[in-house]
Amino acid sequence: MHRTLFDTPIVNTALRAFSKTFLKLTGWKIEGSLPVGIDKCVMIAAPHTSNWDLPYLLMVAFHLRLHVNWMGKKSIFSPPFGPLMRWLGGIAVNREQASNMVDSCAQALKHAQGSLHLVIPPEGTRSKTRYWKTGFYYIALQAQVPIVMGYMDYTRKISGLGPLFYPTGDIDKDMVEIKAFYAPFKGKNADQFETPPDQQT
Question: What's the pTM value of the predicted model, to 2 decimals?
């Protein structure tokens, strides 16, 4: 993976201090932590309903001392912002090549030197959607890494990491359990987030 702000000396330290201070002053409470020994994982980022989710994600990651890479649609990596988005930890995703994306991300997790926490918004879009994309699930399953359930609730101003979830291969059963965890949380645009029990293909 390319260098990001999380492994840029001096900038890393300054942004961690800023993030902790900003979150505290604005009333956010950060909960949970990544268990010791979990160097590689797929991290769900939900609810995803606003452009504000990315800066808050980065600040929470700094607060929790995570080293994250996040996935975003290919269009936001177009010039002149591509280098900046990659430095912020972004990985461009071509939604028309989902199977190749799953394979490449799983291989990246398997062969990464050091820590790699791959953040994926399961809705795949900020717009209202009833269905969750399943790429995050299959990446974790193929790479044999746990899923970490990261959340952000704008109503209660709480964010953090929930329990680890190890995919069993029974996606219908597993998705019911994962979505049940997210049901109480509200995004910035709360009416755009749903966690229905049914699962898309």
Answer: 0.80
